[in-house]
Specification:
Keywords: Oxidoreductase. InterPro entries: NAD(P)-bd_dom_sf, SDR_fam. It is an enzyme of class 1 (oxidoreductase). The chain has 249 residues and is of the alpha/beta class. It has a single domain, classed as Rossmann fold, CATH 3.40.50. 48% of the residues lie in helices and 15% in strands. The protein contains eight helices and seven strands; from the N terminus they run βαβαβαβαβαβαααβ. It has a seven-stranded parallel β-sheet, with helices on both faces. Helix 2 links the parallel strand 2 and strand 3. The longest helix has 28 residues. It binds nicotinamide-adenine-dinucleotide.
């Protein structure tokens, strides 16, 4: 029987690349995204690979919509084996005191509350069925401090704390929870962020020992490894995938 994965933010970037990579491992995919266009595109891509896939539209910052994507997954596929808790938005790129409190609410609502709600409802289903594997998307901004990303960094450090503490509570019940901390990776989100802040792109590439950004496919490979049985004894880790970036800070 095929494994079933929920991927949030699967309509683009890291989520979409991971949907494709997991489909190549014969995993059925639940594509969750606020964007219908991106979500439907991903469903088409993974169905071509030969697995079953559904799109569930949800804004992850709304808890009832999170509960709905979990309920609909169980109704359709009967279980959840893997969860890539990934939907997120970038920070505004402004210094903190130039950020409005509405911007803070929006970033925290999607990046942190959305991830916590997803964890809450998905883990409940997994634990009823004897366990499962979860990967949360943190960031370099979740492991080091940088300027212009104070709120974003707060959400991504929060993701790291959530990951480690879930393991302390539920590893004994069969749950594996890890986080990834990608450096700048060439996805649509990063492209638009750097188009608005070109000096930051130059700065970022200069600061990466490998002198290039990462690719969504490289991240998808890591997430697939962490979710599948190949990583059975890896739990509570925060894996950096950043060309050496944060290790040289
Ligand atoms: N790309 C990078 O350089 C990088 C680096 C570190 C961490 N990240 C993190 O990776 C994750 C994915 O980002 P990406 O680079 O693939 O970006 P992306 O913009 O390409 O994809 C993000 C997807 O999330 C969806 N989304 C946004 N808000 C949502 C919401 N409220 N509810 C549901 N879906 C929503 C978007 O529609 C989009 O399809 C984010 O959590 C981001 O913070 C990205």
């Amino acid at each position: 029987m095929r494994k079933v994965a929920i991927i949030t933010g699967a309509g683009s970037g890291l989520g979409q690349a991971t949907a494709v990579r997991l489909a190549q491992e014969d995993v059925n995919i639940v594509v969750v995204d606020v964007s219908e266009k991106g979500g439907n595109e991903t469903v088409e891509m993974v169905k071509k690979i030969g697995v079953d896939a559904i799109f569930i539209k949800a804004d992850v910052s709304k808890k009832e919509e999170v509960k709905n994507y979990v309920d609909q997954t169980v109704e359709h596929f009967g279980k959840i084996d893997y969860f890539f808790n990934n939907a997120g938005i970038s920070g505004s790129g402004k210094f903190f005191l130039e950020t409005t409190t509405d911007e803070i609410d929006q970033i925290v609502g999607i990046n942190l509350m959305g991830a916590l709600y997803g964890m809450r409802y998905v883990a409940e289903v997994m634990l009823k069925n004897g366990g499962g594997a979860i990967v949360n998307t943190a960031s370099s901004a979740g492991v080091i401090g940088q300027d212009s990303v104070v709120t974003y960094a707060a959400t991504k450090h929060g993701i790291v704390g959530m990951t480690k503490s879930m393991v302390a509570e539920y590893a004994k019940n069969g749950l594996r929870v890890n986080a990834i901390a990608p450096g700048p990776t060439e996805t649509p989100m990063v492209k638009s962020f750097y188009e608005a802040n070109p000096a930051m792109k130059e700065n970022a590439t200069r600061g990466i020992p490998q002198k290039r950004l990462g690719t969504p496919e490289e991240v998808a490979e890591l997430v697939t490894f962490l979710l599948t049985s190949k990583a059975e004894y890896i739990n509570g880790e925060v894996i950096r995938i950043d060309g050496g970036f944060t290790n040289t800070k």
